[in-house]
Amino acid sequence: MNIRFFIKASIIAGFLSLPLMVHATDLERRQSELKSIQAQINKQQSAVKNTNKQREQLISLLKDDEKAIARAAKKVNHTRQDLAQTDKKIAELDAKQVQLNKLKTAQQKSLSNQLASAYLAGNHDYTKMLLNQQSPASIERLLAYYQYLNKARMESINQLQTTLKELDEVQAKQQEQQRRLNKLVLEQQQQAKKLTQEQSQRQNTLTQLQRTLNSSGAKLEQLQIEEASLKRVVEQALTAMKNNPSYEGLSSRNKLKWPANGRIRSAFGSKRSGQVKWKGVIISAAEGQNVNAIAGGKVIYADWLRGFGMVLVVDHGKGYMSLYGHAQALLKSAGDSVSKGEPVALVGRSGGQTEPGLYFEVRHKGQAVDPARYCKR
Questions:
Q1: Could you read off the pLDDT of 53-84 as tens digits, one per residue?
Q2: How far is residue 307 CA from its own chain's centroid?
Q3: pTM of the model
Q4: How far is Cα 339 from Cα 160, in angstroms, rounded to an integer?
Q5: How many helices (H) and strands (E) does the chain have?
Q6: CA-to-CA separations, 364 to 56, 250, 321, 367, in angstroms, rounded
Q7: Rounded Cα distance, 106 and 93, in Å
Q8: CA distances from 326 to 78, 201, 330, 347, 350 (A)
Q9: C-alpha–C-alpha distance, residues 21 and 173, integer Å
């Protein structure tokens, strides 16, 4: 019980932030790049041309940071699943051990009673029984009776031996699973330490990027660039959809579950900046929470996208697609088939977001539609 409590406490502590794990050399390289860009910004803050160049460098660096976070978070998520499975196996072995101990006690008691009965009945030498003056029929009945008792005792002994052997095997498996559990906990703690360092690196990059977007005009320009990037992805997805088998689409209106639990922070069609409006919704959700496919389909895009971070697009057939952005990690790759309700990503803050959440779109034949038409709480 104590080890499970320690494990669960370690898991909670390690997964609250879910930062990035990368090789030290990669982290040092990106830290060095960031310092170089910071120096350029300090020297040439007023030069628009240089600022744009620095912004592009920072966006490229942010992409590296967030893709590294995605790789690490995916590993951490896998470790978390392994921990849960191992904990479940240990619980099953514990339950089996209890059952076997009860069975062993019952078998020992039964065997003890049989031996006591045999002792009270006295020892019966077959030669003496034959020389006895009893009738052959009586002797035959007694022999059959004692053979039956001996057979019952032997079966009880064999059953007890089998139970003891099973108990030994269960205890060996328990020890093996416990060693695996301890190893996984250690790995999780090491990952959490490296992830914290990488999360700090990403925050430094993001801070410098925001300095280059200190005017509303620059922010609007960025949004327009991001929208253009998303448009290209949608066009590519539409082309890919033509080659995919037909799925059922999203004909069941208001019957699908939202991909993540949380409140709608930005509604479909609401204003972002200038004339730019939201073509999807932002769902505030806990970082690391599962993002589930709203319906069955095939993944046709899974990569980092400027302004939207780690993005996954699913083709649902009949011209329908769903898009999931700002993910911490993608659990599926392009070409994978997914089922309704299956985890496809983890909620994050990629794409330069300061708060965790999920960007979610539904499109029909390339046109964005309000997800609330198809999903309900």
A1: 777 778 888 888 888 888 878 888 888 788 78
A2: 25
A3: 0.62
A4: 47
A5: 6, 14
A6: 32, 9, 7, 5
A7: 20
A8: 20, 18, 10, 7, 5
A9: 32
